[in-house]
């Protein structure tokens, strides 16, 4: 009877594994489809970016249409935000795919593992909860995208209203005359071109909104799949719990027969441990005694060496003091000689100054004589 229950449990787990694998492959296929849609969206975004640059250049060359530049720029910024949101959704979907792959691997490991089933099941439940939280975050992001799209529609309505006002203004300003008709025709063409560009932006906005809805539907599908996985995992947990309880019952019977023998083995082991502990303490005390004796002998030898060193240092101190006295005497002698030399230097400095003054005086006299000589030669000549 017990073997039959075990076989039935294994069959149910295999069926659950096949169902999970099928749903996992469906999720991967859905993700690949989303990636293709995102790639198409990226290509159309690049084309729209080129058109936007051309429109801005043309608006800047026409002064009357310059006031639309800020509105179109705001619409473009919103379009860029939508594109960034799409990329964020793709990253989130890839993250969910990675989590589902991890859950699949963990589930396969759970089917093959006989020990630690409860812990693995708990980890799987945590992974599922994490996946549910990720989907909730995606749904919140979808709500934010809806609000952004609403804002875009309001901005486009305001822009259309301003274009109508410009049309009326041009009709009032350009009434009558052939040149005025040509100017009006030119303005009309420019207005139609701008309206076409705005229509293109509306189409892009509609495509982005439709794509967001498709992504939202995919997220809802993933949410439903996660709920189904959670329910089926709960069933697997119940089957595993039953299997674990059955195995525990068998193990308890075996444990009860071995308990007495193990108790005796434990008592013998405790006595052996106590004997080994006492022997270890004795060995440690003997080692400490030997180390203390070695330290005492070493300290005695060190004290003898220190006393001998102190006597030697005392002799060196006396010799050093004698040398210091000799150095002091030599210093006094050098100091006296230095003072005498300074006095001699002072005298020589005074004589040098007198010599410089005499030299300057004789140079002045020589210059005067030269001047008188030149004057005399000039008179004689």
UniProtKB/TrEMBL annotation:
<feature type="coiled-coil region">
    <location>
        <begin position="268"/>
        <end position="330"/>
    </location>
</feature>
<feature type="coiled-coil region">
    <location>
        <begin position="86"/>
        <end position="239"/>
    </location>
</feature>
<protein>
    <submittedName>
        <fullName>Cilia- and flagella-associated protein 58-like</fullName>
    </submittedName>
</protein>
<feature type="coiled-coil region">
    <location>
        <begin position="24"/>
        <end position="58"/>
    </location>
</feature>
<keyword id="KW-0175">Coiled coil</keyword>
């Amino acid at each position: 009877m017990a073997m039959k229950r075990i076989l039935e449990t294994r069959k149910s787990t295999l069926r659950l594994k096949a169902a999970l694998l099928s749903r996992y492959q469906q999720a991967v296929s859905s993700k690949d489809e989303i990636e293709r849609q995102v790639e198409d969206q990226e290509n159309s975004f690049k084309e729209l970016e080129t058109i936007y640059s051309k429109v801005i250049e043309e608006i800047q060359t026409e002064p009357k249409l310059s006031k639309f530049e800020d509105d179109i720029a705001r619409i473009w910024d919103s379009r860029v935000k939508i594109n960034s949101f799409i990329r964020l959704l793709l990253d989130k979907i890839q993250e969910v795919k990675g989590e589902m792959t991890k859950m699949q691997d963990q589930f396969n490991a759970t089917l093959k593992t006989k020990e630690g089933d409860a812990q693995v099941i708990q980890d799987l439940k945590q992974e599922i909860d994490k996946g549910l939280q990720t989907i909730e975050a995606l749904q919140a992001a979808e709500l934010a995208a809806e609000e952004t799209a609403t804002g875009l529609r309001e901005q486009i309505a305001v822009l259309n209203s301003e274009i109508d006002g410009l049309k009326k203004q041009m009709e009032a300003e350009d009434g009558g005359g052939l040149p005025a008709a040509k100017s009006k025709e030119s303005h009309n063409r420019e207005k139609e071109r701008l309206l076409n560009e705005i229509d293109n932006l509306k189409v892009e906005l509609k495509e982005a909104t439709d794509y967001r809805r498709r992504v939202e539907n995919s997220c809802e599908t993933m949410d439903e799949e996660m709920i189904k996985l959670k329910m089926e995992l709960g069933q697997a947990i119940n089957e595993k719990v039953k299997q674990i309880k059955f195995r525990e019952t068998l193990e308890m019977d075996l444990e009860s027969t071995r308990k007495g023998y193990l108790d005796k083995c434990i008592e013998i082991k405790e006595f052996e441990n106590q004997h080994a502990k006492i022997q270890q303490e004795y060995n440690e005390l003997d080692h400490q005694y030997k180390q203390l004796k070695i330290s005492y002998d070493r300290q005695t030898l060190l004290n003898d060496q220190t006393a001998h060193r102190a006597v030697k240092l005392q002799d060196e101190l006396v010799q050093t003091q004698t040398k210091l006295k000799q150095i002091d005497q030599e210093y006094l002698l050098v100091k006296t000689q230095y003072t005498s030399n300074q006095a001699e230097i002072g005298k020589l400095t005074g004589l040098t100054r007198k010599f410089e003054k005499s030299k300057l005086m004789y140079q002045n006299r020589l210059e005067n004589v030269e001047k008188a000589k030149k004057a005399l030669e000039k008179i004689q000549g």
